[in-house]
Amino acid sequence: MPSYDDQNIFARILRGEIPNDTVVETEHTLVFRDIRPQAPVHVLVIPKGAYVSFDDFAANASEAELVDFMRTAAKVSKDLGVSLDGGEGFRAIANTGPHGVQEVPHFHLHILGGHVMGPMLAH
């Protein structure tokens, strides 16, 4: 597992060095709008802890962090009108590593919705 780079853009956002368009913030999670949205709804859900990737977070986060992250993702999906509880669904994407085309080495979950997403992969 690569070591965590505390100068990545999300770490800097969490420290308040870079502004963001916050949707919701909890004890362990921050949700903000993507600066290059790929859908009418496009937010990033990030843990406040220093986790490089999905597998790092899933293996090493505390139970409190895991529960907070998942419940926050569910709440924001509902609040933004894309969950199946009032909406038409969404796509959740966690890019990991070079093959997953992860651009920022801090675990983040993209929640995209507001229209039909199309096929998962185009080859």
UniProtKB/TrEMBL annotation:
PROSITE patterns to which the protein is assigned, alphabetical: HIT_1, HIT_2
Record SUPFAM superfamilies: HIT-like
Domain HIT: 9-122
Stored Gene3D superfamilies: HIT-like
Domain of life where this protein originates: Bacteria
Location of the motif Histidine triad motif: 106-110
InterPro entries the UniProt entry points to: Histidine_triad_CS (IPR019808), Histidine_triad_HIT (IPR001310), HIT-like (IPR011146), HIT-like_sf (IPR036265)
Official protein name in the record: Histidine triad nucleotide-binding protein
Lineage: Bacteria, Pseudomonadati, Pseudomonadota, Alphaproteobacteria, Rhodobacterales
